[in-house]
Amino acid sequence: MSLAVPTQTLNATRKLGKNELHLIGSNFWNIRGCCKYLKVIDIETQMSIIQLHNGKFLIIDTVEMNNRLRQKIDKLTNNGDNIEAVIGAHPFHALSFPAFYQAYPKAAYYGTPRHLRRLTEIPWKGDLNNCSVRKKWEPDVEMRIPAGAEFINPQPESTNHFISVFVYHPASQTLHVDDTILYAEKPGFLLKLFGCKDGAIAFHPSIKTSGLYPTRDAPYLFREWMRNVLFDWPFENMCCAHIGVKLGGAYADVVTLLNNTEPLFAELSEKNRKKIPLDRTSSSNQTNMNTKDNECG
Question: What fold is seen in the domain 5-274?
């Protein structure tokens, strides 16, 4: 796990089981799902459920549901009638959306530009690239897109899974983030062979390659964006798609991670300064766009 730093405090609870509703904080539930990397290593994926002040529910990302999980969601949401909206927060977390839509077709669906391009069978209500859509559920829920990285058409699709919409729920002080930040509470044997350690937190490995724009300013734009997030959002818990949930102390750990990444930001900025940057700041490049089999959740 690239640039991983140990967390200051390990979770007091055991590793969260799959396909269960886990209450993380006030009106915030997280569900762990299975996602196989190289068809062997389970790097997990996630779905979060947030109850709004109006009593309705916001679904953030989706996972494959078994019958037991479906029954629990039905009970919580009155058979889906109280699901106000379903949000796709990561461009490459799309595998479970068609089945979830079949189960809950009455909800309004909002996704990233790639969701809207790829999953045309879903009647999307809006695009998260639209600022007004991201602000739709404030102050209950806040959403932001990282600066310095491509959101509309991340390339190459096979490896650049860096960007995701950060979702913050103030009432529970919980941050929902997909691939941008990784947390490994208790990685399995195979993941440990890849260098993952208990309680490690890291930015997605593509931060070193294609994750950020190849410009001199991009690393520092992302750093300043992260600093603003830390200034505005005093989160204590962090739900990461890969590979777990940090219960308590997440804020301090992300501060440490950001500080420890400073040398990399400088290195990337200098490297980009020395070369002619490729134009990846435009979504006009359609080469290899919406390629299948690049999903990671």
Answer: Metallo-beta-lactamase; Chain A (3.60.15)
